[in-house]
Design goal:
Layout lengths: L1 H4 L2 H52 L15 E5 L4 E4 L3 E5 L22 H11 L11 E9 L2 E13 L5 E9 L1 H53 L14 H50 L6 H25 L7 E4 H9 L5 E5 L3 E4 L1 H18 L4 E8 L2 E8 L33 H11 L3 E6 L5 E8 L2
Parallel strand pairs: 8-10
Antiparallel strand pairs: 1-2, 1-6, 3-4, 4-5, 5-6, 7-9, 10-11, 11-13, 12-13
Helix pairs in contact: 2-4, 5-6, 6-9, 7-8, 8-9
Length: 472
């Protein structure tokens, strides 16, 4: 059960069903309220029309004894004292009017009804302010029930005051049945109770199908990712749907991530293999010298052993620094002058000239000294005679340029030389002490400091390495 309702498809279907259900309930309630209100208004209008018809007859001199009120709807005529003077045929019970009487007791104009004194008529005339033969404008509408010929029903009653031509105040109560309203509302409610669940089922089914179709590529991506995880084959890619929606974007991003991960893993494998290869040579050389010395102490090559040890130490330091850079170690925030760093690194090097302005940056002093030192080592290894260092400002950047007068770097190799353990020619051989890590370290350090390291042709020939770092 948890798995069923834990899926996106189930939650989407449930959410859509709830939204539609709430909308249907609200819409249904509004429809029923509007329908009932309209039908009640129609009943009110019809009841008022019936009451006004009877009142018109009374106002024009028709005697209540001569009224034919019929038996379709309940009608009562009541005098100012609340006495029923006229009633429709067949009325057996009534509520919601001024009186629940169903039998007329006195009829104005009859001999029995002419005994009323003039004072009561004057008082009624003063109360209603109606002139003889006038019908009131205000209609009072009420709810009630009535039984006619044994059939009971709910009614809307309209009460309308009228004064006969001989000055008698009467009130006409006419009712209009609410059977039509109740029947229409019941029919609409029945339709809703049947139709709404069906509509809700259709919406849920459509949402389920549409969601399944929309999420089908996601399931394909999941299966392929599971297969990649099981096989550890990072060369595989997830299927990309031929659409322009979020799922296609997810697939493209996933494939880009897999490609980056594959590149990173492959780079790590090459790094481990190359590091092992580079370490093997000085370790083997040092071991050989120590074994010879153990057997023949007089043959120990101390300078050679020291050189191999230093080389091994430098290589280990380079590998440790690359590992820290790969782990994302921050550059630091020490304030330093690149011009002063360049002059200090160039001091004591033959053939190196420095033209350095005072340019301040923030970062790791040791790392930036290492970068400029590596660039100088590389330039001296390739230069014929002269290496020039320039430190200047360029807008928001601090620029360090290291140029040599050697053969330069071919355009096709200008990115490759920044890869780890890459040596392009004999000048980068192990005999010269290079392991192919100096430029790789320099570029990684520059990137960690928010800068760049590139190479191009120097104006006087040779290679020009340009380090750019953001100014302090």
């Amino acid at each position: 059960m948890n798995r069923l309702f834990g899926s996106v498809r189930s939650r989407a279907t449930l959410g859509a069903g709830l939204v539609v259900a709430v909308a249907l309930v609200m819409a249904g309630a509004a429809v029923l309220f509007s329908l009932r209100s309209n039908l009640i208004d129609q009943a009110d209008t019809q009841a008022e029309r019936s009451a006004r018809g009877v009142a018109t007859l009374l106002a024009t001199g028709k005697s209540s004894a001569d009224l034919d009120l019929g038996d379709e709807n309940p009608v009562q005529v009541v005098d100012a004292n609340g006495t029923l003077v006229a009633v429709g045929d067949g009325l057996e019970r009534i509520s919601g009017t001024a009186t629940d009487a169903v039998k007329a007791q006195a009829r104005p104009g009859d001999p029995s009804g002419s005994g009323g004194d003039d004072d009561s008529d004057d008082d009624a005339d003063d109360a209603t302010a109606l002139e003889p033969g006038e019908i009131g404008d205000d209609v009072e509408l009420t709810d009630g029930t009535a039984t006619i010929d044994g059939e009971s029903a709910d009614y809307r009653f309209a009460a309308l005051p009228v004064e006969t031509d001989d000055g008698v105040e009467l009130t006409v109560y006419a009712g209009e049945s609410l059977d039509t309203e109740q029947s229409a509302v019941d029919t609409a409610l029945t339709v809703m109770l049947i139709g709404f669940p069906l509509l809700l089922g259709v919406v849920a089914a459509a949402t389920w199908l549409v969601t399944r179709r929309a999420l089908r590529p996601v399931e394909g991506i999941r299966r392929e990712m599971a297969a990649i995880t099981a096989s550890e084959d990072l060369a595989r890619r997830v299927p990309e749907p031929d659409t322009h929606d979020e799922v296609a974007a997810l697939a493209r991003t996933t494939n880009a991530t897999l490609a980056a991960l594959e590149t990173s893993v492959e780079r790590q494998r090459r790094f481990v293999a190359d590091a092992s290869h580079e370490l093997r040579s000085p370790i083997a050389s040092l071991r050989t010298q120590l074994e010879v010395a153990a057997a023949h102490p007089e043959l120990l090559d101390v300078p050679g052993a020291v050189q191999d040890t230093v080389r091994l130490q430098r290589l280990a330091a380079d590998l440790l620094l690359l590992a820290r850079l790969d782990a994302g170690e921050g550059p630091g925030d020490t304030r330093l002058d690149l011009g002063e760093v360049a002059r200090r690194e160039a001091r004591g090097r033959d053939g190196v000239t420095v033209e350095a302005a005072e340019v301040e940056v923030a970062g790791s002093r040791n790392r930036l000294e290492r970068v400029i030192g590596n660039l100088l080592d590389n330039a001296q290894r390739h230069a014929r005679s002269v290496v020039g260092v320039t430190v200047r400002r360029d807008g928001a950047w601090a620029v360090v340029e290291v140029a040599d007068d050697g053969d330069g770097v071919a355009e096709a190799d200008r990115e490759r030389i920044f890869e780890r353990f890459v040596r392009l020619d004999e000048a980068r051989s192990r005999d010269d002490g290079g392991a192919g890590l100096g430029l790789a370290i320099a570029r990684d350090v520059a990137a960690r400091h928010g800068g760049t390291l590139t190479v191009r042709d120097a104006p006087a020939g040779g290679a020009l390495f340009e380090l750019r770092l953001p100014l302090l």
